[in-house]
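By convention, each integer encodes one residue's backbone shape. The lines below illustrate.
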Amino acid sequence: MPRTALVVGGTGAVGTELLQELLVSERYGRILCVGRRLPELISELVIGHLVDFEHLQDFLPAGRVDDVFCALGTTLARAGSVEAFKRVDFEYVLKVGILAQRLGAGSLSVISSTAADPSANSIYLQTKGEMEAALIALELPKLHLFRPSLLAGSLKRTDFRFKEVLGNAALAIFGPLFLHGRLRKYRRIAPVCVAAAMVREVFDDRKGTIIYENDAILDLCVLASKSQS
């Protein structure tokens, strides 16, 4: 029986790829995309919903929702302040978790970050760690936390992030040369790889919380590619 997916943040770098991966999987008869903008992907299976994240709790889709995917995320620079950043990367993501719980979804898959830790010195990593802890406390039946490293630049990016461009360039050049073993989790990763791993693992039978580090995501991306070829 075709499943129903709910994607929150389906217009960003990973979210855009996620919608495509869900379509390619051919396991979903309905894909609900929730965000402040409608998705660019045109398909009779993708249904866009404009929402105010401050009132996400009021969103009530018709019919059941099997799997929820959250691709929300911003940066301190783009948000403009620590408070605005935490509103998106902590408060809104937690709202998605509560929504998944209320809808009785069987799984929630969320994008976090490599080195996420509530005790980190970095506000970014600290917030990601606090978000993970808050979602784990919900005790959802299946919670998948994906921790990608720096995402490879998106062609659809509308703003210019100088530090991110430098970081991408450095990881692209030196990553394959020096980032091996335990350091492999810091290699740059393409948004499509993260999306492919999320969709592949949603059908895993294991319950509870599972954390996927960047190196595991890279491996899953390879497996997903082989299964589609």
Summary: Residues 82-103 form the longest helix (22 residues). The mean pLDDT is 87. The helical segments are 13-25, 76-79, 82-103, 123-137, 162-178, 191-201, 214-228.
